Amino acid sequence: DPCSESNGGCSHYCKSEAQTVRCSCPANHNLVGDKNCVPVNPCLIDNGGCSHNCTVAANGVQCQCPAGYKLDSSTCILLDPCREENGGCSHECHHNDGKVQCLCPPGYKLFGKLCLDEDPCQKRNGGCSHYCSNIEGRRVCSCPSGFLLRPNQRVCKDINECRSNRGNCSHGCRNLPGSYECTCPHGFHLEPNNRTCIDVNECEIDNGGCEMFCRNYKGTFRCDCPEGHALERDGKTCRRREIQQCQNLKPPQNGGMSCPGYRPDYALLVPSGTKCNVWCNEGFKLRGRPFRTCNELGEWDNVDTQCVGLGNTVS
């Protein structure tokens, strides 16, 4: 048997037929020439049954997976890299073919895998008319005291406190940007509560500037003078009034007259302020007022009185 000596020169299987050597190969091998068997590359046939990478091993093929995949028999299964420590992302983690893709929420900017807050208030105050706050990358407008945020959530509108119960002021109310103040009319001043107006007693300060008497009234005052004096045009100074006198007044015919303080039958002049009572004799009736007064102009007021007989008329 020629195969009994050195396997007939075959590298693997040897079979003799009619004293002739015939070499053959095991599976996954090809006969090169007449004697030698060389392995066949199984990865060239349907990738060796591997879903991804195929390498030749001593016992056949060895399947391998790229990064981000896990080998299950001969199939590579995609792993979710975001499951472990969020893929290294500070916020949102997505993956594409096993590759991590980090994403940021609105108001943030991506630096590598880190999302950093992007302050929206840095540009034009975030569009806010007054205060701008950065809350997790989101612009929030707010207003100072005395203002109200409009529905557009950006512009602040002044609140007119005077429209509601006159701002609780006792008299006047003046609206100011973001505030208001109570006001008082002339002759009043505001109490420490900044709400109530009380009368100013001008007479308590330098007698109101009056030379003689000062009389306080609600919201104002007046200077007065004693009897026998008159107030000058400046409203503060008093001057002595000249006493005017009236010519002697004679009693009516058929009547009489009495003037307390002097006798008209003796006096030639009567001081102003003198009052005389007039009457008629029996059988006569008085026409006119029963008294006459010497006024400040030195004249007797009322018309002349007459005594007429009963039954007579005066034209």
From TrEMBL:
Cysteine pairings via disulfide bonds: C280-C307
Alphabetical list of SMART domains matching this protein: CCP (SM00032), EGF (SM00181), EGF_CA (SM00179)
Family according to the record: Belongs to the fibulin family.
Protein name, entry field: Uncharacterized protein
InterPro entries (UniProt xref): cEGF, EGF, EGF-like_Ca-bd_dom, EGF-type_Asp/Asn_hydroxyl_site, EGF_Ca-bd_CS, Growth_fac_rcpt_cys_sf, Nephronectin_domain, Sushi/SCR/CCP_sf
Highest taxon above the source species: Eukaryota
Keywords for the protein's UniProt record, in alphabetical order: Disulfide bond, EGF-like domain, Extracellular matrix, Glycoprotein, Repeat, Secreted, Signal, Sushi
GO terms for MF: calcium ion binding
